Amino acid sequence: MQKIERISNRIVYLPPYEETDRPILAAVAGDKKTILIDAGNSSKHANLFLKQLEELHIRGDFLALTHSDWDHIFGMSTIDIETIAHYKTQEKIKKLKELSWEDKFLDQRVEEGTEIPFCAEAIKKELGNQREVFLPIPDITFDKKMSINLGGVTAVIEHVGGDHADDCTVIYIPEEKVLFLGDCMYANLYSKKWSYTIANTLQLVEQLEKYDANIFFLSHHDKPVYKEEFQFRIKFLKDTAFLTKKYSGNQNAIIKEVSKELQRKLNAEEMEIIECFVNGYVTE
Ligand SMILES: [Zn+2]
User: 164 CA to middle of ligand 1, Å?
Assistant: First the structure.
């Protein structure tokens, strides 16, 4: 079972769990109010988080959602506090409310191509036979950006979009120099083949570059990422976007130039990112 970790006086997080696609959950505690980040992928997941928060005497006042993917919202009714979401996230949740999560419906959506096999499997594993999912409609919505004074610390919630989902939102804690990225840096997993597009990537990178932070949380990464690695990742996305354009999506040419620049062979994750850009270029 995942165990809460503390990164500062004010911030704790529950690490992700790949097997059933549980993302990172976090709490930022101010002197007056506490904000929780993401609701988890089930009541079980949310309860695990709440129980460990209770042991630390932390109680959430607000819940901020990073986007509407199932694994970030299915624990909402269990957390049951005032929920903040981008207006597009709210719209998507309204649509998700109409869906059923039993095997036959999940399998049907996988067949139609509206659900990913990996998510369907993770949902089955995580929820077991409890496939009733109650999704409350988020209470507070915003368009571009909003901020909450928690007392001695601020939560800046900003919409950034990107290929992963157009409602992707980040939560920035300026006083702590911490940025919660949700899934915004990941590829579009709902396209026929996983993809990044040049335009969305450059737009996203431009937004992310402006945050002055030292610690970054990607929702499905085991550990937080520090500044140097974050900057490398951002540059890698940006360079690959430009090279995809320069070489009209020629995968080998892109790999060759990136690896020449880095003076080493690319690792599996880097190769996958390039492949996603090539996929995105073909369909662009
Ligand atoms: Zn996601």
Answer: 7
